[in-house]
Amino acid sequence: MEARFDMFDNEIAAKFAKRFANASLVITQSPLPKSTLELVSLRASQINGCGWCIDLHTKELAAAGESAVRINLVAAWRESTVFTEAEQAALALAEEGTRLADAHQGVSDETWGLVRKHYDDDQIAALVAGVALINAANRLAVIVHQRGGSYEPGMFAAALS
User: Fold this and answer.
1) Residue ranges covered by each domain of the chain
2) 65 torsion bin: left (phi>0), alpha (psi -120 to 50), beta (else)
3) Residue of 10 and 47 predicted with greater confidence
4) How many Cβ atoms are within 10 Å of 137's Cβ, its own excluded?
């Protein structure tokens, strides 16, 4: 299946993509650990079936030195022993924040309490914004059928500077 539309080759889409990427800088420059942000982004992308984003986040995690075991177990994080309590709280927030239509209350009080236990206000702001941003990115890529497989770690770094 070919991509339906090239979001990198249209003037309006390119302007939007640059602003979207610049918004992500606020999150990546926050005190939230980069590995946590990538794990959360990978989990939301798995839920949303976004091959492009799964490709991107697995490769970025690997390039940053994350173990294959942890990358492979993100999809089953509840049934694994390789994530910290803080990472588990972030992954739960990502799942509940992604599956809004599946739970009438959205993010549960229990999950929110775990997030508050492990993260300060700046980290929480970045985590919430990160979940929202990755869900938007997933939707963009899935709508136009942007397929995974061609991403190279760091390939958008020059565009952001």
Assistant:
1) 29-160
2) left
3) 47
4) 24
Report domain 29-160's class. Answer: mainly alpha
In angstroms, how far is CA 65 from the centroid of its own chain? 17
Q: What is the pLDDT of residues 74-103, one digit of tens each?
A: 999 999 999 999 999 999 999 999 999 887
Residue written as token pair 């300060």: 120
> How open is the CA angle 114-116-117, to the nearest 5 degrees?
65
- Model confidence, pTM: 0.93
The residue to which tokens 């946590």 are assigned: 36
Task: Read off the pLDDT band of 43 (50, 70, 90).
Answer: very high
- Give me the phi and psi of 77, to 5 degrees please: -60, -30
Count the alpha carbons within 13 Å of 90 in the hemisphere toward its beta carbon: 30
